[in-house]
C-alpha cells in the first residue's frame, strides 16, 4: 500500500506549532499574535496550526466563550479574533517569514445553531424524533450527514474558499476518522487543484494516509503515559514505534507531549511526565516523524488552560525553554541523520533509559534519554558508530569517544551527541 498523494516538499520535514489564539495574548486576536511571529520563526517553527478561527455557536454553548469546535459558519471569521483583513495580514506575515499556516477543520459536526440548520436541515443527522443529534457524547454540537452529496459539496467549497481567499497552506482535520475517508480524498483532490497543501489528520487509522500526509501518534503518547505511571515498560513504547515503521512509505506520524486536548483535559506535560517532560520532548524532535509544540510549551506553561473561557498564557519576556527548543529544532532542520537517517535502538539494562543512534552518511547522532522522573541510571554504549569526536547539542562541549563508553544519566536527563563526519 502506498499513499495516493505526495507530501508537498515544504511540509515533509516541518515542525508544527499549535496556536490557541484565545489564550495566547490578553487581546486574544490575530493582530496581537503577530508580534510573536519573529520569536517562533527564530525558535525553528515551520507550520502554524490555528485552532478553529470560525465563529462559535451560542446555542448549547459551554462556558462563557464556548468551544472552538462548535462553529456557526464555515466561512466567517470569529469576530473575537479579528477581521477578514486582519487574518489576511497574518497569513501574509507568516509567509513573509517563510513559514506556513494551516487551519483546524471540523467536518464531522457543527455547533447547534450553524446557519445550515435554517437553510439545509437535511444536511444533518436526525434522531428518531426528527431532532438534530450527535453520536459521540459532545453536548454542544450536531452531526453532519455525509450521505448528502450537496452537503459534501458545500463543505469542500468552504475548504477551497480559505485557500483561494486567504492563501492558507492546509488543514488539520479534527476527529478525521469520524468522517468517511472518501470525503477526504475528494476534498483533497479538489483543493489540490488550487495549490498543494499539507493535510494533517487527528486520527490513527492507517488507511487515512490515503488522503492525509500525517496522522497523530496518540497511541505512542498513551503508551508513554502508561510508562510514566509504571503500568508499562519501554518495551511497549518501542512496539508502538515498530508498528509505525510499518506504515505505508511516505506516511508521517505527528509526535507531541501536549496539545489543546491534552493540556486542558488530561494535564500539562509536567503533570504527565514530571522532570522527564523535556526528555520526551527531545524524543519527539529526534525520532523519525513530525514534532508538534503547543502554545506555551516553550514558556514553559505549568497550568491547564481553560477550554471554554478566557485563561491567557502569562508569557515570560524570554520564554525559559526558547533556547532549548531553538537548539533542538534548528539543528533538526539541517540534520540529514534526524530527518532521513536510519535508526538503531541500543539495548539498555535499565528499562527507563531510551538510547538510539540516527545516522545518514557521515553524520551520526546519539540520543540518550533517562525517561524516569526519579531514578538515575547508567548505560554502556558499545558500537562502531560511537568512535570519534562528538559535540553535545545543548552544551556545545566536545567529546572524544571510543567504540565503548559508559554514560550516567540523572532523572530526566536528555543527552544528544552529534558527529558531523569527516
Description:
The chain has about 425 residues and is an alpha/beta fold. It folds into 2 domains: about 325 residues, Glycosidases (TIM Barrel), CATH 3.20.20.80; about 80 residues, Immunoglobulin-like. The chain is built from 14 helices and 18 strands. The strands form 4 sheets. An 8-stranded parallel β-barrel has the order 1-2-3-6-7-8-9-10. A 6-stranded antiparallel beta sheet has the order 11-12-13-18-15-16. Strand 12 and strand 13 form a beta hairpin. Helix 6 packs parallel to helix 7 and helix 8 packs antiparallel against helix 9. The longest helix is centred in the middle third of the chain and has 18 residues. It is globular and about 70 Å long.
Count of all domains: 2
Let me know the largest β-sheet. Answer: 8 strands, parallel, barrel
Cα distance spanning the termini: 38 Å
* Helicity, as a percent range: 25-40%
The tally of helices reads 14
Report mean pLDDT, rounded to a whole number: 96
Strand elements, count? 18
Short description:
The protein has 422 residues and is of the alpha/beta class.
Layout of secondary structure:
Elements: E1 16-19, H1 21-24, H2 30-34, H3 37-43, E2 47-50, H4 84-96, E3 100-105, E4 109-111, H5 116-119, E5 141-143, H6 149-166, E6 170-173, H7 181-192, E7 198-201, E8 214-216, H8 218-228, H9 234-245, E9 252-255, H10 260-266, H11 269-273, H12 277-286, E10 290-294, H13 322-334, H14 336-340, E11 342-345, E12 353-360, E13 363-370, E14 377-382, E15 388-392, E16 398-401, E17 404-409, E18 414-419
Parallel strand pairs: 1-2, 1-10, 2-3, 3-6, 6-7, 7-8, 8-9, 9-10
Antiparallel strand pairs: 4-5, 11-12, 12-13, 13-18, 14-17, 15-16, 15-18
